[in-house]
Amino acid sequence: MEKAAGSPSVGSSYPQKNAEILSSQYGINLFLAGLLLTFAWAVHAVGISKSHLLSYLITLMLIQVLWMLWYLCRSCTQRRLIQEKDTHAGARWLKCGITLFAVITLILDSFKIGYYIDFAKCLSPTEGIFPVTHAVHTILQVKKNYCLCVQIPAIITLFSRFGVIHSVFTNLLLWTNGVLTESKHQLNEHKERLITLGFGNITIVLDDHAPQCNCTTTTLCSIFSQGIYYLYPFNIEYHILASTMLYVLWKNIGRQVEHHQQHKTPFKFQGITVGMILGLIVLTSTIAIVVVYLIQIGRSKIKSESALTMFYLHAIFVLALMCTAGIVGLLIYRLEDRSLDNSKNPARKLDGELLVGTAAGSWILSWGSILAIICAQAHPAYTWYNLPYSVLVIIEKYIQNLFIIESIHREQEKGNDDIKTLRIVSISRGSTLSLSPLYKEIYNRRAACDNGEVPCLVRGSVCGRENDAGGGGKAETSQEKSSVMHSGSDFSFYSRNSATNSKRRILKNIAAFLFLCNLSLWIPPAFGCRPEYDNGLEEIVFGFEPWIIVVNLAMPFSIFYRMHSAASLFEVNYKT
Protein backbone atom coordinates (compact mmCIF):
# COMPACT_ATOMS: atom_id res chain seq x y z
CA MET A 1 0.00 0.00 0.00
CA GLU A 2 2.80 2.39 0.82
CA LYS A 3 4.48 1.73 -2.54
CA ALA A 4 1.23 2.19 -4.40
CA ALA A 5 0.59 5.46 -2.67
CA GLY A 6 3.99 6.76 -3.64
CA SER A 7 3.85 5.69 -7.27
CA PRO A 8 1.52 8.44 -8.55
CA SER A 9 3.81 11.18 -7.29
CA VAL A 10 6.79 9.49 -8.94
CA GLY A 11 4.89 9.06 -12.19
CA SER A 12 3.66 12.65 -12.16
CA SER A 13 7.22 13.96 -12.01
CA TYR A 14 8.09 12.51 -15.44
CA PRO A 15 5.75 14.79 -17.48
CA GLN A 16 7.13 17.83 -15.62
CA LYS A 17 10.72 16.81 -16.29
CA ASN A 18 9.96 16.09 -19.94
CA ALA A 19 8.23 19.45 -20.30
CA GLU A 20 11.29 21.16 -18.81
CA ILE A 21 13.67 19.36 -21.20
CA LEU A 22 11.51 19.95 -24.28
CA SER A 23 10.93 23.64 -23.54
CA SER A 24 14.61 24.30 -22.75
CA GLN A 25 15.72 22.74 -26.05
CA TYR A 26 13.11 24.80 -27.91
CA GLY A 27 14.39 27.98 -26.25
CA ILE A 28 18.05 27.22 -26.94
CA ASN A 29 17.39 26.60 -30.65
CA LEU A 30 15.33 29.79 -30.82
CA PHE A 31 18.19 31.73 -29.27
CA LEU A 32 20.93 30.18 -31.43
CA ALA A 33 19.03 30.97 -34.63
CA GLY A 34 18.62 34.59 -33.56
CA LEU A 35 22.24 34.81 -32.40
CA LEU A 36 23.56 33.61 -35.76
CA LEU A 37 21.28 36.05 -37.56
CA THR A 38 22.59 38.88 -35.38
CA PHE A 39 26.19 37.83 -36.06
CA ALA A 40 25.52 37.63 -39.80
CA TRP A 41 24.20 41.19 -39.82
CA ALA A 42 27.13 42.43 -37.73
CA VAL A 43 29.73 41.04 -40.19
CA HIS A 44 27.72 42.10 -43.29
CA ALA A 45 26.98 38.59 -44.51
CA VAL A 46 25.67 38.41 -48.07
CA GLY A 47 21.88 38.58 -48.24
CA ILE A 48 21.41 39.50 -44.56
CA SER A 49 20.27 43.02 -43.65
CA LYS A 50 19.05 44.75 -40.51
CA SER A 51 15.44 44.38 -41.67
CA HIS A 52 15.82 40.56 -41.59
CA LEU A 53 17.02 40.68 -37.98
CA LEU A 54 14.27 43.08 -36.94
CA SER A 55 11.64 40.93 -38.68
CA TYR A 56 12.80 37.90 -36.69
CA LEU A 57 12.68 39.83 -33.41
CA ILE A 58 9.25 41.28 -34.24
CA THR A 59 7.93 37.75 -34.91
CA LEU A 60 9.25 36.50 -31.57
CA MET A 61 7.74 39.45 -29.71
CA LEU A 62 4.34 38.98 -31.39
CA ILE A 63 4.28 35.29 -30.44
CA GLN A 64 5.08 36.24 -26.85
CA VAL A 65 2.42 38.97 -26.87
CA LEU A 66 -0.22 36.45 -28.04
CA TRP A 67 0.79 34.02 -25.29
CA MET A 68 0.72 36.76 -22.63
CA LEU A 69 -2.74 37.90 -23.77
CA TRP A 70 -3.98 34.30 -23.60
CA TYR A 71 -2.60 33.86 -20.10
CA LEU A 72 -3.98 37.18 -18.82
CA CYS A 73 -7.43 36.49 -20.28
CA ARG A 74 -7.48 32.98 -18.83
CA SER A 75 -6.39 34.31 -15.44
CA CYS A 76 -9.14 36.94 -15.48
CA THR A 77 -11.90 34.51 -16.48
CA GLN A 78 -10.80 31.75 -14.06
CA ARG A 79 -9.61 33.34 -10.86
CA ARG A 80 -8.96 29.94 -9.33
CA LEU A 81 -5.89 29.58 -11.58
CA ILE A 82 -4.03 32.11 -9.49
CA GLN A 83 -3.24 30.19 -6.35
CA GLU A 84 -0.86 30.83 -3.53
CA LYS A 85 1.92 33.32 -4.08
CA ASP A 86 5.36 31.81 -4.53
CA THR A 87 7.72 34.00 -2.53
CA HIS A 88 10.77 32.67 -4.41
CA ALA A 89 9.41 33.61 -7.83
CA GLY A 90 9.56 37.40 -7.64
CA ALA A 91 12.27 39.18 -5.68
CA ARG A 92 11.50 42.73 -4.64
CA TRP A 93 14.50 44.22 -6.39
CA LEU A 94 13.62 42.47 -9.66
CA LYS A 95 10.11 43.93 -9.65
CA CYS A 96 11.31 47.45 -8.86
CA GLY A 97 14.18 47.26 -11.34
CA ILE A 98 12.01 45.94 -14.16
CA THR A 99 9.39 48.64 -13.59
CA LEU A 100 11.95 51.46 -13.55
CA PHE A 101 13.84 50.28 -16.63
CA ALA A 102 10.60 49.45 -18.47
CA VAL A 103 9.46 53.08 -18.14
CA ILE A 104 12.77 54.31 -19.58
CA THR A 105 12.56 51.67 -22.33
CA LEU A 106 9.16 53.06 -23.32
CA ILE A 107 10.75 56.51 -23.62
CA LEU A 108 13.44 54.95 -25.83
CA ASP A 109 10.76 53.37 -28.04
CA SER A 110 9.04 56.74 -28.42
CA PHE A 111 12.36 58.29 -29.49
CA LYS A 112 12.82 55.52 -32.07
CA ILE A 113 9.33 56.11 -33.42
CA GLY A 114 10.06 59.84 -33.74
CA TYR A 115 13.40 59.09 -35.40
CA TYR A 116 11.71 56.80 -37.92
CA ILE A 117 9.06 59.42 -38.76
CA ASP A 118 11.80 61.99 -39.50
CA PHE A 119 13.75 59.55 -41.73
CA ALA A 120 10.82 57.51 -43.08
CA LYS A 121 11.88 58.09 -46.70
CA CYS A 122 15.06 56.04 -46.44
CA LEU A 123 14.44 53.61 -43.59
CA SER A 124 12.93 50.14 -43.79
CA PRO A 125 9.33 49.81 -42.51
CA THR A 126 10.56 47.24 -39.99
CA GLU A 127 12.45 50.04 -38.17
CA GLY A 128 9.09 51.73 -37.54
CA ILE A 129 7.19 48.54 -36.68
CA PHE A 130 9.88 47.33 -34.28
CA PRO A 131 9.60 50.11 -31.61
CA VAL A 132 5.78 49.96 -31.68
CA THR A 133 5.81 46.20 -31.18
CA HIS A 134 8.51 46.52 -28.53
CA ALA A 135 6.47 49.08 -26.57
CA VAL A 136 3.40 46.80 -26.50
CA HIS A 137 5.64 43.87 -25.60
CA THR A 138 7.20 45.83 -22.70
CA ILE A 139 3.86 46.92 -21.21
CA LEU A 140 2.34 43.44 -21.33
CA GLN A 141 5.51 41.78 -20.06
CA VAL A 142 5.69 43.96 -16.95
CA LYS A 143 2.02 43.23 -16.28
CA LYS A 144 2.53 39.50 -16.85
CA ASN A 145 5.58 39.37 -14.57
CA TYR A 146 3.47 40.52 -11.65
CA CYS A 147 0.71 38.05 -12.49
CA LEU A 148 3.13 35.16 -12.88
CA CYS A 149 4.64 35.54 -9.42
CA VAL A 150 2.38 32.67 -8.39
CA GLN A 151 2.42 28.91 -8.60
CA ILE A 152 1.22 28.01 -12.10
CA PRO A 153 -1.46 25.30 -12.15
CA ALA A 154 -0.45 21.85 -13.35
CA ILE A 155 -3.18 21.70 -16.03
CA ILE A 156 -1.40 24.33 -18.12
CA THR A 157 2.16 23.47 -17.07
CA LEU A 158 3.36 22.32 -20.49
CA PHE A 159 2.01 25.32 -22.39
CA SER A 160 3.26 27.66 -19.68
CA ARG A 161 6.78 26.23 -19.81
CA PHE A 162 7.03 26.84 -23.56
CA GLY A 163 5.57 30.33 -23.20
CA VAL A 164 7.89 31.37 -20.38
CA ILE A 165 11.05 29.92 -21.97
CA HIS A 166 10.10 31.65 -25.24
CA SER A 167 9.91 34.90 -23.27
CA VAL A 168 13.30 34.25 -21.63
CA PHE A 169 15.18 33.82 -24.91
CA THR A 170 13.24 36.59 -26.68
CA ASN A 171 14.48 38.99 -24.02
CA LEU A 172 18.02 37.65 -24.34
CA LEU A 173 17.94 38.27 -28.10
CA LEU A 174 16.57 41.77 -27.59
CA TRP A 175 19.39 42.32 -25.09
CA THR A 176 21.95 41.07 -27.64
CA ASN A 177 20.51 43.38 -30.30
CA GLY A 178 20.72 46.35 -27.94
CA VAL A 179 24.33 45.58 -27.03
CA LEU A 180 25.35 45.29 -30.68
CA THR A 181 23.54 48.48 -31.73
CA GLU A 182 25.09 50.49 -28.91
CA SER A 183 28.56 49.07 -29.63
CA LYS A 184 28.41 49.98 -33.32
CA HIS A 185 27.48 53.54 -32.40
CA GLN A 186 30.38 53.94 -29.96
CA LEU A 187 33.20 52.48 -32.07
CA ASN A 188 33.76 55.62 -34.17
CA GLU A 189 33.89 57.78 -31.03
CA HIS A 190 36.51 55.56 -29.42
CA LYS A 191 38.61 55.50 -32.57
CA GLU A 192 38.72 59.32 -32.54
CA ARG A 193 39.72 59.34 -28.87
CA LEU A 194 42.58 56.90 -29.51
CA ILE A 195 43.90 59.10 -32.30
CA THR A 196 44.12 62.05 -29.87
CA LEU A 197 46.25 59.89 -27.55
CA GLY A 198 48.78 59.34 -30.33
CA PHE A 199 47.67 55.89 -31.54
CA GLY A 200 47.51 56.97 -35.17
CA ASN A 201 48.45 53.55 -36.52
CA ILE A 202 44.92 52.25 -35.83
CA THR A 203 43.56 52.32 -39.36
CA ILE A 204 40.21 50.60 -39.65
CA VAL A 205 37.14 51.75 -41.49
CA LEU A 206 34.11 51.48 -39.23
CA ASP A 207 30.49 51.36 -40.28
CA ASP A 208 28.47 54.50 -40.71
CA HIS A 209 24.83 53.61 -40.16
CA ALA A 210 23.46 57.13 -40.60
CA PRO A 211 20.39 57.29 -42.88
CA GLN A 212 21.12 58.24 -46.48
CA CYS A 213 18.58 61.05 -46.62
CA ASN A 214 17.90 64.39 -45.00
CA CYS A 215 15.90 64.78 -41.82
CA THR A 216 12.61 66.66 -42.00
CA THR A 217 13.29 68.53 -38.72
CA THR A 218 16.99 68.80 -37.92
CA THR A 219 16.62 69.75 -34.25
CA LEU A 220 14.29 66.86 -33.41
CA CYS A 221 16.46 64.40 -35.31
CA SER A 222 19.50 65.45 -33.29
CA ILE A 223 17.57 65.07 -30.01
CA PHE A 224 16.22 61.66 -31.00
CA SER A 225 19.55 60.28 -32.28
CA GLN A 226 21.50 61.41 -29.21
CA GLY A 227 18.78 60.44 -26.74
CA ILE A 228 18.44 56.94 -28.16
CA TYR A 229 22.04 56.03 -27.37
CA TYR A 230 21.98 57.57 -23.91
CA LEU A 231 18.91 55.46 -23.08
CA TYR A 232 20.26 52.19 -24.48
CA PRO A 233 22.02 51.19 -21.20
CA PHE A 234 18.66 51.19 -19.43
CA ASN A 235 17.08 49.14 -22.22
CA ILE A 236 19.91 46.60 -21.96
CA GLU A 237 19.45 46.32 -18.18
CA TYR A 238 15.69 45.95 -18.60
CA HIS A 239 15.96 42.93 -20.88
CA ILE A 240 18.57 41.14 -18.77
CA LEU A 241 16.47 41.71 -15.62
CA ALA A 242 13.32 40.53 -17.40
CA SER A 243 15.02 37.38 -18.66
CA THR A 244 16.35 36.72 -15.14
CA MET A 245 12.92 36.98 -13.54
CA LEU A 246 11.30 34.91 -16.28
CA TYR A 247 13.93 32.22 -15.84
CA VAL A 248 13.11 32.01 -12.12
CA LEU A 249 9.43 31.70 -13.01
CA TRP A 250 10.21 28.96 -15.54
CA LYS A 251 12.14 26.99 -12.91
CA ASN A 252 9.26 27.35 -10.45
CA ILE A 253 6.50 26.09 -12.74
CA GLY A 254 4.84 23.10 -11.08
CA ARG A 255 6.88 23.48 -7.87
CA GLN A 256 4.98 23.08 -4.62
CA VAL A 257 4.77 26.26 -2.59
CA GLU A 258 6.44 25.92 0.80
CA HIS A 259 4.10 26.91 3.61
CA HIS A 260 5.98 28.97 6.11
CA GLN A 261 5.33 32.19 7.90
CA GLN A 262 6.81 35.23 6.22
CA HIS A 263 8.30 37.76 8.64
CA LYS A 264 7.91 41.17 7.05
CA THR A 265 10.34 43.69 8.48
CA PRO A 266 9.93 47.31 7.36
CA PHE A 267 13.05 48.83 5.85
CA LYS A 268 14.57 51.51 8.08
CA PHE A 269 17.42 53.93 7.53
CA GLN A 270 18.09 54.04 11.25
CA GLY A 271 21.53 52.74 12.17
CA ILE A 272 23.10 52.99 8.69
CA THR A 273 24.00 56.68 8.76
CA VAL A 274 27.76 56.14 8.44
CA GLY A 275 27.44 53.76 5.51
CA MET A 276 24.96 56.03 3.74
CA ILE A 277 27.09 59.15 4.18
CA LEU A 278 30.27 57.45 2.92
CA GLY A 279 28.37 55.87 0.04
CA LEU A 280 26.78 59.18 -0.97
CA ILE A 281 30.21 60.81 -0.96
CA VAL A 282 31.47 58.09 -3.32
CA LEU A 283 28.36 58.45 -5.52
CA THR A 284 28.69 62.24 -5.77
CA SER A 285 32.40 62.12 -6.53
CA THR A 286 31.85 59.41 -9.16
CA ILE A 287 29.25 61.50 -10.98
CA ALA A 288 31.68 64.45 -10.98
CA ILE A 289 34.51 62.24 -12.29
CA VAL A 290 32.30 60.91 -15.11
CA VAL A 291 31.26 64.42 -16.17
CA VAL A 292 34.87 65.65 -16.24
CA TYR A 293 36.01 62.48 -18.03
CA LEU A 294 33.46 62.81 -20.82
CA ILE A 295 34.35 66.49 -21.27
CA GLN A 296 38.14 65.97 -21.30
CA ILE A 297 38.57 62.69 -23.16
CA GLY A 298 39.36 63.13 -26.85
CA ARG A 299 39.99 66.88 -26.64
CA SER A 300 43.78 66.64 -26.73
CA LYS A 301 46.53 64.27 -25.69
CA ILE A 302 47.19 66.06 -22.39
CA LYS A 303 43.50 66.28 -21.48
CA SER A 304 42.88 62.65 -22.41
CA GLU A 305 45.81 61.45 -20.30
CA SER A 306 44.71 63.56 -17.32
CA ALA A 307 41.14 62.23 -17.65
CA LEU A 308 42.36 58.61 -17.63
CA THR A 309 44.70 59.24 -14.68
CA MET A 310 41.89 60.91 -12.73
CA PHE A 311 39.54 58.00 -13.42
CA TYR A 312 42.07 55.34 -12.37
CA LEU A 313 43.05 57.10 -9.13
CA HIS A 314 39.43 57.56 -8.10
CA ALA A 315 38.52 53.96 -8.96
CA ILE A 316 41.55 52.60 -7.07
CA PHE A 317 40.53 54.51 -3.94
CA VAL A 318 36.88 53.35 -4.14
CA LEU A 319 37.79 49.72 -4.83
CA ALA A 320 40.25 49.69 -1.93
CA LEU A 321 37.50 50.95 0.41
CA MET A 322 35.09 48.30 -0.89
CA CYS A 323 37.66 45.54 -0.36
CA THR A 324 38.21 46.72 3.21
CA ALA A 325 34.47 46.85 3.94
CA GLY A 326 33.93 43.38 2.48
CA ILE A 327 36.78 41.88 4.52
CA VAL A 328 35.40 43.42 7.73
CA GLY A 329 31.97 41.94 6.95
CA LEU A 330 33.43 38.48 6.34
CA LEU A 331 35.42 38.66 9.59
CA ILE A 332 32.25 39.49 11.51
CA TYR A 333 30.55 36.47 9.95
CA ARG A 334 33.45 34.29 11.08
CA LEU A 335 32.98 35.52 14.65
CA GLU A 336 29.22 34.90 14.63
CA ASP A 337 27.56 31.61 15.46
CA ARG A 338 24.55 31.62 13.17
CA SER A 339 23.14 28.75 11.15
CA LEU A 340 22.77 28.91 7.37
CA ASP A 341 19.45 28.60 5.56
CA ASN A 342 19.90 25.55 3.34
CA SER A 343 16.29 25.33 2.15
CA LYS A 344 15.65 24.99 -1.58
CA ASN A 345 15.33 28.46 -3.10
CA PRO A 346 15.68 28.84 -6.91
CA ALA A 347 15.82 32.63 -6.76
CA ARG A 348 18.63 32.65 -4.19
CA LYS A 349 20.56 30.02 -6.15
CA LEU A 350 20.20 32.09 -9.31
CA ASP A 351 21.41 35.21 -7.48
CA GLY A 352 24.64 33.46 -6.53
CA GLU A 353 25.16 32.06 -10.02
CA LEU A 354 24.58 35.47 -11.62
CA LEU A 355 27.06 37.13 -9.28
CA VAL A 356 29.86 34.73 -10.19
CA GLY A 357 28.89 34.42 -13.86
CA THR A 358 28.62 38.13 -14.62
CA ALA A 359 31.76 38.93 -12.62
CA ALA A 360 33.66 36.93 -15.25
CA GLY A 361 33.07 39.80 -17.68
CA SER A 362 35.12 42.22 -15.58
CA TRP A 363 37.71 39.56 -14.83
CA ILE A 364 38.31 39.00 -18.56
CA LEU A 365 38.86 42.72 -19.12
CA SER A 366 41.13 43.02 -16.07
CA TRP A 367 43.32 40.08 -17.05
CA GLY A 368 43.51 41.47 -20.59
CA SER A 369 44.73 44.81 -19.24
CA ILE A 370 47.28 43.13 -16.95
CA LEU A 371 48.63 41.06 -19.83
CA ALA A 372 48.80 44.14 -22.09
CA ILE A 373 50.79 46.08 -19.48
CA ILE A 374 53.24 43.20 -19.11
CA CYS A 375 53.69 42.63 -22.85
CA ALA A 376 53.62 46.22 -24.15
CA GLN A 377 56.91 47.73 -25.29
CA ALA A 378 55.98 51.36 -24.55
CA HIS A 379 54.17 52.40 -21.37
CA PRO A 380 52.67 55.90 -21.17
CA ALA A 381 52.54 57.19 -17.60
CA TYR A 382 48.78 56.80 -17.19
CA THR A 383 48.84 53.10 -18.13
CA TRP A 384 50.69 52.19 -14.91
CA TYR A 385 47.62 53.20 -12.92
CA ASN A 386 45.72 50.59 -14.92
CA LEU A 387 47.70 47.79 -13.24
CA PRO A 388 46.55 48.33 -9.61
CA TYR A 389 43.08 49.19 -10.93
CA SER A 390 42.79 45.86 -12.77
CA VAL A 391 44.13 43.87 -9.82
CA LEU A 392 41.70 45.55 -7.41
CA VAL A 393 38.75 44.88 -9.74
CA ILE A 394 39.51 41.14 -9.54
CA ILE A 395 40.01 41.13 -5.76
CA GLU A 396 37.02 43.36 -4.99
CA LYS A 397 34.55 41.20 -6.92
CA TYR A 398 35.97 38.07 -5.31
CA ILE A 399 35.49 39.48 -1.79
CA GLN A 400 32.10 41.05 -2.52
CA ASN A 401 30.72 37.83 -4.01
CA LEU A 402 31.73 35.94 -0.87
CA PHE A 403 30.09 38.57 1.35
CA ILE A 404 26.80 38.68 -0.59
CA ILE A 405 26.45 34.92 -1.06
CA GLU A 406 27.11 34.26 2.63
CA SER A 407 24.71 37.05 3.63
CA ILE A 408 21.78 35.76 1.57
CA HIS A 409 22.28 32.24 2.96
CA ARG A 410 22.16 33.32 6.61
CA GLU A 411 18.99 32.99 8.63
CA GLN A 412 17.39 36.11 10.07
CA GLU A 413 18.02 36.75 13.72
CA LYS A 414 15.19 36.57 16.21
CA GLY A 415 17.03 38.39 18.95
CA ASN A 416 14.57 41.23 19.39
CA ASP A 417 11.72 38.94 20.47
CA ASP A 418 14.00 37.14 22.91
CA ILE A 419 15.06 40.45 24.44
CA LYS A 420 11.45 41.53 24.98
CA THR A 421 10.55 38.21 26.56
CA LEU A 422 13.54 38.21 28.90
CA ARG A 423 12.88 41.78 30.02
CA ILE A 424 9.26 41.03 30.86
CA VAL A 425 10.28 37.87 32.73
CA SER A 426 12.93 39.86 34.62
CA ILE A 427 10.29 42.38 35.66
CA SER A 428 7.96 39.65 36.83
CA ARG A 429 10.76 38.16 38.91
CA GLY A 430 11.53 41.44 40.56
CA SER A 431 14.85 42.17 38.82
CA THR A 432 16.23 45.59 39.66
CA LEU A 433 18.02 45.95 36.30
CA SER A 434 17.57 49.30 34.57
CA LEU A 435 15.15 48.95 31.67
CA SER A 436 14.77 50.80 28.42
CA PRO A 437 11.97 53.42 28.26
CA LEU A 438 9.81 51.03 26.28
CA TYR A 439 9.52 48.65 29.22
CA LYS A 440 9.44 51.10 32.12
CA GLU A 441 5.74 51.55 31.47
CA ILE A 442 5.23 48.08 32.97
CA TYR A 443 6.35 49.50 36.31
CA ASN A 444 4.26 52.60 35.78
CA ARG A 445 1.14 50.46 35.55
CA ARG A 446 1.58 49.38 39.18
CA ALA A 447 -0.97 51.93 40.33
CA ALA A 448 -3.48 50.62 37.86
CA CYS A 449 -2.99 47.12 39.28
CA ASP A 450 -3.64 48.40 42.79
CA ASN A 451 -6.88 50.03 41.67
CA GLY A 452 -8.03 46.84 39.98
CA GLU A 453 -8.04 48.42 36.51
CA VAL A 454 -5.56 45.92 35.06
CA PRO A 455 -5.90 42.19 35.84
CA CYS A 456 -2.89 40.38 37.19
CA LEU A 457 -2.36 37.52 34.77
CA VAL A 458 1.04 36.34 35.88
CA ARG A 459 1.46 34.82 39.28
CA GLY A 460 4.29 36.42 41.15
CA SER A 461 4.20 39.60 39.03
CA VAL A 462 4.93 43.07 40.42
CA CYS A 463 1.37 43.86 41.38
CA GLY A 464 0.84 40.30 42.62
CA ARG A 465 3.79 40.54 44.92
CA GLU A 466 2.69 43.93 46.25
CA ASN A 467 -0.89 42.84 46.82
CA ASP A 468 0.42 39.73 48.62
CA ALA A 469 2.20 41.77 51.27
CA GLY A 470 0.38 39.82 53.94
CA GLY A 471 2.76 36.93 53.28
CA GLY A 472 5.34 38.67 55.47
CA GLY A 473 8.81 40.05 54.98
CA LYS A 474 10.38 36.61 54.81
CA ALA A 475 8.82 35.89 51.43
CA GLU A 476 9.88 39.31 50.17
CA THR A 477 13.47 38.68 51.31
CA SER A 478 13.60 35.34 49.48
CA GLN A 479 12.25 36.93 46.31
CA GLU A 480 14.86 39.70 46.50
CA LYS A 481 17.62 37.10 46.83
CA SER A 482 16.20 35.26 43.85
CA SER A 483 16.18 38.44 41.78
CA VAL A 484 19.83 39.07 42.63
CA MET A 485 20.71 35.54 41.47
CA HIS A 486 18.92 36.16 38.17
CA SER A 487 20.58 39.54 37.63
CA GLY A 488 23.98 37.98 36.85
CA SER A 489 22.60 35.83 34.05
CA ASP A 490 20.56 38.79 32.78
CA PHE A 491 23.67 40.96 32.60
CA SER A 492 25.53 38.30 30.63
CA PHE A 493 22.61 38.03 28.19
CA TYR A 494 22.47 41.80 27.76
CA SER A 495 26.21 41.96 27.08
CA ARG A 496 25.95 39.23 24.45
CA ASN A 497 22.96 40.97 22.91
CA SER A 498 24.77 44.31 22.89
CA ALA A 499 27.68 42.73 21.00
CA THR A 500 25.23 41.13 18.55
CA ASN A 501 23.48 44.45 17.91
CA SER A 502 26.82 46.15 17.31
CA LYS A 503 27.78 43.51 14.75
CA ARG A 504 24.42 43.82 13.02
CA ARG A 505 24.79 47.60 12.89
CA ILE A 506 28.25 47.30 11.34
CA LEU A 507 26.97 44.77 8.78
CA LYS A 508 24.05 47.03 7.83
CA ASN A 509 26.43 49.97 7.34
CA ILE A 510 28.74 47.81 5.21
CA ALA A 511 25.82 46.64 3.06
CA ALA A 512 24.56 50.23 2.65
CA PHE A 513 28.04 51.48 1.72
CA LEU A 514 28.64 48.68 -0.80
CA PHE A 515 25.15 49.24 -2.24
CA LEU A 516 25.90 52.88 -3.06
CA CYS A 517 29.42 52.04 -4.26
CA ASN A 518 28.05 49.51 -6.74
CA LEU A 519 25.57 52.07 -8.03
CA SER A 520 28.48 54.48 -8.38
CA LEU A 521 30.58 51.98 -10.35
CA TRP A 522 27.60 51.17 -12.56
CA ILE A 523 27.38 54.77 -13.80
CA PRO A 524 30.75 55.15 -15.68
CA PRO A 525 30.46 52.20 -18.10
CA ALA A 526 26.71 52.68 -18.54
CA PHE A 527 27.19 56.27 -19.74
CA GLY A 528 30.26 55.90 -21.94
CA CYS A 529 33.11 56.30 -19.47
CA ARG A 530 35.08 53.20 -20.51
CA PRO A 531 38.87 53.39 -20.15
CA GLU A 532 39.10 49.84 -21.52
CA TYR A 533 38.31 51.41 -24.89
CA ASP A 534 40.18 54.67 -24.43
CA ASN A 535 43.64 53.96 -23.01
CA GLY A 536 44.85 52.32 -26.25
CA LEU A 537 47.38 49.92 -24.74
CA GLU A 538 45.21 46.82 -25.13
CA GLU A 539 44.43 47.69 -28.77
CA ILE A 540 48.15 47.83 -29.57
CA VAL A 541 48.88 44.44 -27.94
CA PHE A 542 45.80 42.47 -29.02
CA GLY A 543 44.78 44.45 -32.11
CA PHE A 544 41.92 46.91 -32.45
CA GLU A 545 39.20 44.57 -33.73
CA PRO A 546 39.90 41.60 -31.38
CA TRP A 547 40.03 43.79 -28.28
CA ILE A 548 36.89 45.71 -29.25
CA ILE A 549 35.04 42.40 -29.70
CA VAL A 550 36.22 41.25 -26.26
CA VAL A 551 35.14 44.53 -24.64
CA ASN A 552 31.75 44.51 -26.39
CA LEU A 553 31.07 40.99 -25.16
CA ALA A 554 32.35 41.45 -21.61
CA MET A 555 31.21 45.01 -20.81
CA PRO A 556 27.43 44.27 -20.67
CA PHE A 557 28.09 41.54 -18.09
CA SER A 558 30.21 43.96 -16.07
CA ILE A 559 27.45 46.57 -16.14
CA PHE A 560 24.83 44.02 -15.15
CA TYR A 561 27.04 42.76 -12.33
CA ARG A 562 27.04 46.17 -10.64
CA MET A 563 23.27 46.53 -10.87
CA HIS A 564 22.68 42.97 -9.68
CA SER A 565 25.15 43.42 -6.79
CA ALA A 566 23.45 46.65 -5.73
CA ALA A 567 20.07 44.92 -5.72
CA SER A 568 21.42 41.95 -3.76
CA LEU A 569 23.07 44.25 -1.21
CA PHE A 570 19.78 46.09 -0.74
CA GLU A 571 18.19 42.75 0.14
CA VAL A 572 21.09 42.00 2.51
CA ASN A 573 20.58 45.33 4.28
CA TYR A 574 16.85 44.70 4.49
CA LYS A 575 17.25 41.25 6.08
CA THR A 576 20.22 41.93 8.37
Automatic annotation (TrEMBL):
<keyword id="KW-1133">Transmembrane helix</keyword>
<feature type="transmembrane region" description="Helical">
    <location>
        <begin position="311"/>
        <end position="333"/>
    </location>
</feature>
<comment type="similarity">
    <text>Belongs to the otopetrin family.</text>
</comment>
<feature type="transmembrane region" description="Helical">
    <location>
        <begin position="26"/>
        <end position="47"/>
    </location>
</feature>
<feature type="transmembrane region" description="Helical">
    <location>
        <begin position="271"/>
        <end position="295"/>
    </location>
</feature>
<keyword id="KW-0813">Transport</keyword>
<feature type="region of interest" description="Disordered">
    <location>
        <begin position="466"/>
        <end position="487"/>
    </location>
</feature>
<feature type="transmembrane region" description="Helical">
    <location>
        <begin position="93"/>
        <end position="117"/>
    </location>
</feature>
<keyword id="KW-0406">Ion transport</keyword>
<dbReference type="Pfam" id="PF03189">
    <property type="entry name" value="Otopetrin"/>
</dbReference>
<dbReference type="GO" id="GO:0015252">
    <property type="term" value="F:proton channel activity"/>
</dbReference>
<dbReference type="GO" id="GO:0005886">
    <property type="term" value="C:plasma membrane"/>
</dbReference>
<feature type="transmembrane region" description="Helical">
    <location>
        <begin position="506"/>
        <end position="528"/>
    </location>
</feature>
<feature type="transmembrane region" description="Helical">
    <location>
        <begin position="53"/>
        <end position="72"/>
    </location>
</feature>
<feature type="transmembrane region" description="Helical">
    <location>
        <begin position="229"/>
        <end position="250"/>
    </location>
</feature>
<keyword id="KW-0407">Ion channel</keyword>
<keyword id="KW-0375">Hydrogen ion transport</keyword>
<dbReference type="InterPro" id="IPR004878">
    <property type="entry name" value="Otopetrin"/>
</dbReference>
<protein>
    <submittedName>
        <fullName>OTOP1 protein</fullName>
    </submittedName>
</protein>
<keyword id="KW-0812">Transmembrane</keyword>
<keyword id="KW-0472">Membrane</keyword>
<feature type="transmembrane region" description="Helical">
    <location>
        <begin position="540"/>
        <end position="561"/>
    </location>
</feature>
<feature type="transmembrane region" description="Helical">
    <location>
        <begin position="354"/>
        <end position="379"/>
    </location>
</feature>
<keyword id="KW-1003">Cell membrane</keyword>
<dbReference type="GO" id="GO:0042472">
    <property type="term" value="P:inner ear morphogenesis"/>
</dbReference>
